[in-house]
Amino acid sequence: MTRIAIGIDIGGSSVKLGAVDERGSVLVRKRVPITQEIAFQDFVSTIAAAVEDLKPQLPAFSAIGIGVPGTPDPVTGMLLGRCPAIPSLVEASLLGPFSQRFGVPAIVRNDAICATYGEMRHGAGRGLNRFVLFTLGTGIGGSVVIDRKVIDGPNGLPPQLGCMSMDPARTDIADPVPGMLENLASARALVNRYRQLQPHNPAANAEIVVDRARSGEAMALQAVDEVTRWLAQAIGIMSNMLNLEAAIIGGGLSAAGSFLTDRIARHVRDFVLLKPGRPPAIVTAEHGNNAGLIGAGTLALDAVPVAA
């Protein structure tokens, strides 16, 4: 019988959750809106109730995986440091409340680590040994896979891909790291750059900027080109160090598909030592915004021994 886990992917304005089987398929899913100010106990109650709503549609599940926008200790589940997306999550661990409520083992991991694991096991990284995954949204997250292992640091500390300093002379975007990638190439950065180029006709979000670029608007095309070149520079630096096979582009901005990845691929050749190396393939995450949900569930299943 195929085992099932509940995957929970916590974002700043909503939580995605669903049942994930051993093939990485999402059997049922649900999205729950939340506010940044939600209290810890209210958060637990709200998400536990959403899991209960899924139970009638499922056979029994054997684990729960939770992806959080912060740095959780993999043993205790306690967040180390701040959690700006939902500050109350630093008050206690999510492990106990969910494991005790549903009587199954639970794990808590960083959301970018979950997304990378999901794409490695069941997505665009399933045939790759060495790759980086970028999650492009309001910020930039992600992780690196070397020899089929998702790389993190002490106590589960995820790589801070968005904090790479690409242009340290940029005093206008010097916080917290001068000229860092997140302030140059995230969805938020794309909107901000377009607003600078087109102040009299701004766009409310990155999707609108991309749509205008697709239609041929010059300022939107310039903004997209600048963002993709910054991403290509970051990918080139990492590829020169690690000889990566690919860079997988996930997060909300990945919805632009080949319109985005083709431009990154054209630019990346300017930043990669081609001999004896090779330019990494630039591909879109197969599971898009579901990668974190799938990865959280898959990590939970892989952590639970199969019953004899």
UniProtKB/TrEMBL annotation:
<dbReference type="GO" id="GO:0016301">
    <property type="term" value="F:kinase activity"/>
</dbReference>
<dbReference type="InterPro" id="IPR000600">
    <property type="entry name" value="ROK"/>
</dbReference>
<comment type="similarity">
    <text>Belongs to the ROK (NagC/XylR) family.</text>
</comment>
<dbReference type="InterPro" id="IPR043129">
    <property type="entry name" value="ATPase_NBD"/>
</dbReference>
<keyword id="KW-0418">Kinase</keyword>
<keyword id="KW-0808">Transferase</keyword>
<dbReference type="Pfam" id="PF00480">
    <property type="entry name" value="ROK"/>
</dbReference>
<protein>
    <submittedName>
        <fullName>Sugar kinase</fullName>
    </submittedName>
</protein>
